[in-house]
Design brief:
Number of strands: 0
Largest sheet: none
Shape: elongated
Order of helices and strands: HHH
Radius of gyration: 21 Å
Number of helices: 3
Strand content: under 5%
Structural class: mainly alpha
Number of domains: 1
Helix content: 55-70%
C-alpha cells in the first residue's frame, strides 16, 4: 500500500535524488523508500548487536587508552 505525503528536502539533496533516479531508471519515491528502509535495517542491526553484548564487561575510556598504551597500540 502506498500513501502520498509531502516532505521538505534540501535543494541539493533533491538534485542528487533526481540525478540518481535518472541514472538508475528509478522513481525518486522508490529511492527515498529504499534509503529509509536501509536506515531502519541498520537501526535494527545495531539494536541486535547491543542486545547480544549487554552482558559484556564495560570499561572506561581512560582504562581502554591505558591498555592500548601498555600494549604499544598507541
Amino acid at each position: 500500500m502506498s500513501v502520498r505525503t509531502t516532505i521538505t528536502l534540501d535543494e541539493d539533496i533533491l538534485k542528487l535524488l533526481k540525478f540518481k533516479a535518472l541514472d538508475t531508471s528509478e522513481l525518486v519515491s522508490s529511492l527515498v523508500n529504499a534509503i529509509i528502509i536501509d536506515a531502519f535495517r541498520e537501526d535494527a542491526s545495531d539494536l541486535k548487536a547491543f542486545d547480544e553484548r549487554k552482558n559484556e564487561e564495560t570499561i572506561s575510556y581512560e582504562l581502554l587508552l591505558q591498555k592500548f598504551q601498555v600494549s604499544g597500540k598507541l
